[in-house]
Design goal:
This protein is an alpha/beta fold. Helix 1 packs across helix 2 and helix 9 packs parallel to helix 10. Strand 4, helix 9 and strand 5 form a beta-alpha-beta unit. Strands 3-2-1-4-5-6 form a 6-stranded parallel β-sheet, with helices on both faces. The protein is built from 11 helices and 6 strands. Keywords: Hydrolase, Magnesium, Metal-binding. InterPro entries: Beta-PGM-like (IPR051600), HAD-like_sf (IPR036412), HAD-SF_hydro_IA (IPR006439), HAD_sf (IPR023214), PGP-like_dom2 (IPR023198).
Length: about 220
Amino acid sequence: MIDLVIFDFDGVVVDSEVASNGLLAEIATELGHPMDMSGAVRFFGGSTLFQQLEKLAMLAGGKLPEDFGTALQERTMSALAAVQPLPGLEHFLDWLGPLPICIGSTSAPERIEFCLDAAGLSDRFSGNVFSVSMVGRNKPAPDIFLHAAERMGTSPQRCLVIEDSPHGVVAGRAAGMGVIGLAAASHLAAGHPERLLAAGADHVAESYGEVRQLMQRHFGFAAAR
């Protein structure tokens, strides 16, 4: 039985990766390294803001202007101002009913809260937002998921992680949690479900309707809550 569902954020709660990675591709191109959105997904995927700045500094020859980080945050927020929930997410949350939920993400807390507000989802997660910035290591280490479980008062073995990245899947499995890989976001390329399974996902879904079916079939949810 599952007592807590932990959602990754970008590509799982909000469909933000096209906007954010499109911006990163634009900035990389401005730094003299032409890149498209799919290239940005490969190069920056799963990075924290600090790691993004490190990678951009590498592209820039080792150094960025002093105000570059602030400018990047401002441009990112502007790009994400119209972000939307993943299709079917809100119906899925309604179905979960009183089951505790939270977010465990590589993104900064301020970015998560901004996107939740923009997408009209702030009330859904009631402040239960946990970021890699709160723990020692980024995914694929399990730190963020273990931290979320501890803060929510739940045993890792009774948690279910919903993830869209291979690194996130590895992190969830390393935390001893069940993992459903979600391949529903608009930025994902062909073959992504197979990559999630190869990373160790228990099951893979391509919509929240399929996530619901998997939870009923494999995780003890015999009826809607």
